[in-house]
Amino acid sequence: MRCLGNNIERTINNIRVAYSDEGPVDAPVIIFIHGFPFNRCMWDKQAEALSEHYRVITYDVRGHGKTDAGYNDFSMDVFSADLIALMDALEIETAVLCGLSMGGYIALNAMEKYPHSFDALVLCDTQCIDDTLEVKEKRMKAIESIRKNGVEQYADESIKNLFAPASDATKQNEIAAIREMIVNTSRDSLRKTMIALAERKTTCRKLQEISIPVLIMVGSEDKITPLTESQKMHKNIPGSVLCVIENAGHVSNMENPDMFNEQLMKFMRQHAEKPIRMSARQLSVSQ
Ligand code: MLT
To answer: What digits encode the pLDDT tens for the residues 163-195?
Structure first.
């Protein structure tokens, strides 16, 4: 599929990470983290809209898109350590972080571990809870089914839950693009990521400690991370803003990019900060 951006690669944490870095170099930075099992191409419409005024980074999470899987197991800790290593490599002191679904799990993990690295947070179609036993079992069954029946069947099953019913007719290109992202993810990375998702810890207890601006967005018909989960996060994150994206399911940024981008741009105008000179991480180390 079409994947906007300048397609750069760089080695961090012993893997080659594929990313795109566009927009004015001295502008406030926004970093996008995709969901599972997609890749950074899912943010094309956002990168296009924002890169005139902001430095926009989209990257493929370990094992997804064109980023190496490496040899070790995956976890939310590993994914957020990769994010910070990429920020360090790109000399990004602080950024607005925008994650969708698994991207949101990574963002909330990173927020707990590296709170001084972020100016603001955008949580899209995501949640703070860990997996129930039932969801863990579903993931183990999916791993088994991929082993037996292959990725194509898994992609077709997944697609059924990802989009709002109305998108079936109107978002054929987006559905095809997401399917392509899924089938291009290796079996091993699918397995390793599903285990990481099943083993992830809740981040709900820490929400009240978040003191940066937070925008929560969710598709009105998201079946995977439903509105009720966004409402819970909204209630617990002081000063957060909740926006329901109409006519959208779980991939709200692709299903209704106009409304999604309008809310995101409004939030960026209010909260994105110009890059600062010295890293908050360096400052906390030197103090
Ligand atoms: C995603 O879109 O990242 C996944 O649906 C997350 C999950 O399976 O929990």
So the answer is: 999 999 999 999 999 999 999 999 999 999 999
Question: Are 243 and 216 a contacting pair, CB within 8 Å?
Answer: yes
Residue 80 CB contacts under 8 Å (≥ 6 apart), including other chains: 106, 109, 110, 113, 114
pLDDT surpassing 60 at residue 102? yes
The closest alpha carbon to 111, from 17, 28, 203, 238, belongs to 203
Q: What secondary structure does DSSP assign to 63-78, as a single string?
A: TSTTS---SSPP-HHH
CA torsion through residues 86, 88, 92, 94, sign: positive
What pLDDT was estimated at residue 276? Answer: 59
The ligand 1 atom at the shortest distance from the C-alpha of residue 251 is 2
Q: Give the burial string for 231-243 (b: 16+ CB within 10 Å, else e).
A: ebbbebbeebbbb
Q: Is 89 helix (H, G, I), strand (E, B) or coil?
A: helix
Dist CA 68 CA 251 (whole Å): 24
pLDDT category of residue 14 using cuts at 50, 70 and 90: very high
Counting ligand 1 atoms within 8 A of each CB, the residue from 108, 126, 225 with the most, and so the one to mutate, is: 225
- Enumerate residues lining ligand 1, CB below 6 A: 35-36, 101-102, 197, 224
Query: If you measure from the C-alpha of residue 287 to the centroid of ligand 1, how many angstroms do you get, rounded to a whole number?
Result: 38
Residue 40 CB partners (closer than 8 Å, separation 6+): 3, 5, 18, 19, 20, 32, 34, 58, 59, 60, 65
